[in-house]
């Protein structure tokens, strides 16, 4: 997060202020040109499927797939990988002709398992020694994975769904090539977005229980899948992991996955360079250098408070009082690191808890931080409750949690750094793409408030939390009250 210091932005901010309107439902501060999914959202469903925290992983009763894998072993990693590839391939056998109206799906020519920590094998002209990757090689129609380091490492960090996600993504690249959707001139971002979208389409099939070996719950299971997307850094034909930006931010990647999950593979096939660049325009122009961290102190809190007042000023909200004192709120349970009390219209902040969240994720110290935006988004979420209270909406329950995520997304969308001037940002506080990714990480965590009601109860499915945030980010405040009125 950073403060803007250019006069151009101040001028832009004052012209935005002319477009004020009253009431959270009447607000028409929308952002043009940003498509969203067709699905309607609610707290107890995930794109129309029941939200559940059931088991995810290999189905215990399923027979292992009988697919030839060069170099494959009978170990845990290869067993999971082979079963996953078999399920993804089975999915495309029916989805491919339905999507492309084009005959039969040709199975992958060659599957290769290798161990990057031991002797090299040649795949696609590359020596696999030290190649901690998984990739699709178009020239040899081959999907290869590293069973030595990459897949077990991801599995240890994110669970069994992580290798499945990686392989479904690589299969997405194979589908692109079969359907002629990409060639060597296609920008990496576009082919990556489409592969993530195809990944989402497969996971819907698995979440519906239709895959033979793999099952995934729409709650905790998909949370893990969404969490791992930002870590996939294949680059077909090149060695190792490469520039994260070329693959899109975590926010872009989760969005693409959700399009495929909600709308199916046709939606992915329709992705073009034009539509992807339009949706992700803001991100392409951002530079890492624009990111600075706001400390957690009184001065920064005052800046964030000003930004919230500016963005939500036209909703009819009576700005809540912010305090660092812990004040009791009748019988209401307080929440950390910020607590909203409707009766006194107060937000109490716990600075030390906010600082823990604001710590960079790689600081090692506590290892629990998400970054400055994640911390201030917790505060914004409590402010969003005051906005709902003023509009006569419930501040407890799952619908309140989703509205909260949507309103925090709307705030984010109105303060986002936008060098090409499509968004007309409000006020002087600015966020950058890394900030949005902090928000996504916090949304997918077990203890965040961005998608939580006044009691701190989070909406159960991370998928629904992120989707609500994204809808607010892309479309502004209007859908926050109209979509989530349950
Ligand atoms: Zn890829």
Automatic annotation (TrEMBL):
Q: What is this protein called?
A: Putative neutral zinc metallopeptidase
PROSITE patterns assigned to the protein according to its UniProt record, in alphabetical order? PROKAR_LIPOPROTEIN (PS51257)
Biased-composition ranges, Polar residues, are: 33-44
Q: Where is the signal peptide?
A: 1-19
Name one matching Pfam family.
Zn_peptidase
Its annotated compartments are: Membrane
Q: According to its record, what are the GO cellular component terms?
A: membrane
Q: Where is this region: Disordered?
A: 33-80, 316-337
Q: Which species?
A: Actinopolyspora saharensis
């Amino acid at each position: 997060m950073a403060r803007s210091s250019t006069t151009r932005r101040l001028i832009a901010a004052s012209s935005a202020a002319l477009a004020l309107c009253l009431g959270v439902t009447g607000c028409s501060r929308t952002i043009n040109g940003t498509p969203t999914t067709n699905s309607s959202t609610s707290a107890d469903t995930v794109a129309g499927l029941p939200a559940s925290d059931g088991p995810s992983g290999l189905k215990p009763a399923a027979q292992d797939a009988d697919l030839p894998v060069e170099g494959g072993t009978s170990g845990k990693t290869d067993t999971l990988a082979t079963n996953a590839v078999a399920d993804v391939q089975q999915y495309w056998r029916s989805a491919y002709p339905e999507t492309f109206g084009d005959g039969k799906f040709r199975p992958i020519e060659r599957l290769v398992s290798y161990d990057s920590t031991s002797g090299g094998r040649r795949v696609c002209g590359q020596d696999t020694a030290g190649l901690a990757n998984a990739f699709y090689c178009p020239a040899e129609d081959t999907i290869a994975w590293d069973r030595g380091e990459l897949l077990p490492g991801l599995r240890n960090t994110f669970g069994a769904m992580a290798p499945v996600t990686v392989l479904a993504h690589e299969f997405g690249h194979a589908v692109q090539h079969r359907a002629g959707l990409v060639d060597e001139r296609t920008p990496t971002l576009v082919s990556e977005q489409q592969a993530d979208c195809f990944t989402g389409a497969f996971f819907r099939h698995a979440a519906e229980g239709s895959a033979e070996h793999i099952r995934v719950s729409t709650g905790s299971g998909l949370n893990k899948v969404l969490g791992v997307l930002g870590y996939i850094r294949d680059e077909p034909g090149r060695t190792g992991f490469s520039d994260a930006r070329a693959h899109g931010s975590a926010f872009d990647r989760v969005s693409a996955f959700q399009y495929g999950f909600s709308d199916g593979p046709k939606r992915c096939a329709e992705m073009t360079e034009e539509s992807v660049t339009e949706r992700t325009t803001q991100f392409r122009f951002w530079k890492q250098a624009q990111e600075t961290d706001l400390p957690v102190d009184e001065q920064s809190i005052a800046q964030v408070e000003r930004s919230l007042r500016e963005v939500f000023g036209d909703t009819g909200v009576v700005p809540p009082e912010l305090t660092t004192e812990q004040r009791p709120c009748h019988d209401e349970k307080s929440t950390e690191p910020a607590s909203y009390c409707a009766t006194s219209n107060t937000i109490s902040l716990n600075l030390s808890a906010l600082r823990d969240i604001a710590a960079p994720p790689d600081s090692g110290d506590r290892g629990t931080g998400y970054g400055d935006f994640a911390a201030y988004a917790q505060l914004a979420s409590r402010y969003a409750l005051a906005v709902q209270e003023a509009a006569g909406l419930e501040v407890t329950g799952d619908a309140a949690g989703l509205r909260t995520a949507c309103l925090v997304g709307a705030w984010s969308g109105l303060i986002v750094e936008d060098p090409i001037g499509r968004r007309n940002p409000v006020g002087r506080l600015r966020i950058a793409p890394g900030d949005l990714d902090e928000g996504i990480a916090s949304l997918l965590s077990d203890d965040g408030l961005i998608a939580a009601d006044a009691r701190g109860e989070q909406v159960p499915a991370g998928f629904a939390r992120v989707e609500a945030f994204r809808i607010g980010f892309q479309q502004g405040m209007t859908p926050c009250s109209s979509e989530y009125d349950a």
